[in-house]
């Protein structure tokens, strides 16, 4: 009888232990699900590799050097790393219903769209994109591909949208001032298809001017503003002393200066369907220039009118349902090939995502790009 009671107690204990284990397992699963839901619908975290990825056998390896910019290339080399951007899924271009810059009979500009609405029409956006692409192709064709980079709102757009900031109204590049005369000489040869306005401290590349009959039409031409035309691409210039890079337009109020290693060597980044040179550390470059990159600004200036406009600032999370933003994470299932010449770079994943609502997101595309390894951070882009 004692033996029977002992066996009964053992069976009860075993059953209780199994029950407790099941409860613990269910609790753990619940915690994991809660965390996944939290990070999927509330927070999107930006971070890059903290350590050197292992080149584990069987895991695809991407060489960050594939993204390095070299001057003699006529275009970015085609490889498994630099994907064909045309083949990716892209959102429809956010464009204004009517061309910006239309004037009434008294010569007054018609009102511009509200803050954070697209400024450029379809044709104006296409012209601005073409100005940037033509400039890039011309620079590479003349062996100057590593002497310029995306800049300003265009670089910030590449980082946050893989394209234009939806409410931006121009394109920007930053060029080595030591080749300014050569660049101007090359660009003057593009006339009459493109026009160049030279000044200090920056130049402007723009399209042929519209004629009287085209003033209310949406055509891929520029509209007269001051002594040049809009849409245009700003060509800014930099100096370098080996330790720092400086925009020559810097002033005591706006000191646009970066340590040399943040800028060079240049690496390719996507902007629309094409690859363009960009600073080595795009995130830190933008951070120095703009401060919080998760804050979406509408600057108090209109290039359409070349005049002051209303300033606005919101956290980008407030626009995440309206426009796709780029999420930055480690490249899953891919290791970074390490060489002595890769400048401590690894590859990280960038996904273009629209948060339709709190329960649904749409990912348009994902690709891996070269990023610095030696900067470990966690950054909320939008929540």
Automatic annotation (TrEMBL):
<dbReference type="GO" id="GO:0009100">
    <property type="term" value="P:glycoprotein metabolic process"/>
</dbReference>
<keyword id="KW-1133">Transmembrane helix</keyword>
<dbReference type="Pfam" id="PF04991">
    <property type="entry name" value="LicD"/>
</dbReference>
<protein>
    <recommendedName>
        <fullName>LicD/FKTN/FKRP nucleotidyltransferase domain-containing protein</fullName>
    </recommendedName>
</protein>
<dbReference type="InterPro" id="IPR007074">
    <property type="entry name" value="LicD/FKTN/FKRP_NTP_transf"/>
</dbReference>
<keyword id="KW-0472">Membrane</keyword>
<feature type="domain" description="LicD/FKTN/FKRP nucleotidyltransferase">
    <location>
        <begin position="148"/>
        <end position="175"/>
    </location>
</feature>
<feature type="transmembrane region" description="Helical">
    <location>
        <begin position="20"/>
        <end position="39"/>
    </location>
</feature>
<dbReference type="InterPro" id="IPR052942">
    <property type="entry name" value="LPS_cholinephosphotransferase"/>
</dbReference>
<keyword id="KW-0812">Transmembrane</keyword>
């Amino acid at each position: 009888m004692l033996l029977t009671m002992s066996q009964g107690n053992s069976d009860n204990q075993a059953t209780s232990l199994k029950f407790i284990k099941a409860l613990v397992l269910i609790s753990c699963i619940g915690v994991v699900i809660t965390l996944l839901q939290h990070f999927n619908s509330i927070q999107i975290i930006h971070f890059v590799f903290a350590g050197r990825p292992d080149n584990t056998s069987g895991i695809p390896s991407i060489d960050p050097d594939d993204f390095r910019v070299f001057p003699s290339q006529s275009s970015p080399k085609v490889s498994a790393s630099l994907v064909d951007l045309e083949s990716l899924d892209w959102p429809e271009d956010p464009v204004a219903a009517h061309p910006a810059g239309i004037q009434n009979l008294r010569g007054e500009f018609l009102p511009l769209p509200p803050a954070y609405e697209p400024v450029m029409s379809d044709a104006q956006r296409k012209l601005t994109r073409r100005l940037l692409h033509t400039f890039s192709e011309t620079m590479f064709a003349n062996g100057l591909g590593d002497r310029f980079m995306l800049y300003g709102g265009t670089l910030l757009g590449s980082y946050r949208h893989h394209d234009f900031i939806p409410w931006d109204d121009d394109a920007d590049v930053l060029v080595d001032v030591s080749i300014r005369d050569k660049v101007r000489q090359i660009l003057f040869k593009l006339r009459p298809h493109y026009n160049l306005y030279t000044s200090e401290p920056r130049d402007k590349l723009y399209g042929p001017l519209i004629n009287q009959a085209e003033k209310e039409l949406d055509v891929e031409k520029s509209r007269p503003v001051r002594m040049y035309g809009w849409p245009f691409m700003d060509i800014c210039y930099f100096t370098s002393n080996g330790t720092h890079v400086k925009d020559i337009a810097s002033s005591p109020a706006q000191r646009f200066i970066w340590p040399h290693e943040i800028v060079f060597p240049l690496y390719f980044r996507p902007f629309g369907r094409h690859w363009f040179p960009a600073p080595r550390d795009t995130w830190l470059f933008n951070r120095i220039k703009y401060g919080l990159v998760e804050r979406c600004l509408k600057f108090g200036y209109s290039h359409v009118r070349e005049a002051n406009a209303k300033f606005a600032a919101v956290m980008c999370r407030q626009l995440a349902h309206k426009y796709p933003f780029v999420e930055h994470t480690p490249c899953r299932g891919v290791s970074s090939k390490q060489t002595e010449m890769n400048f401590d770079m690894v590859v990280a994943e960038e996904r273009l995502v629209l948060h339709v609502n709190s329960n649904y997101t749409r990912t348009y595309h994902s690709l891996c790009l070269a990023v610095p390894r030696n900067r470990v951070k966690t950054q909320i882009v939008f929540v």
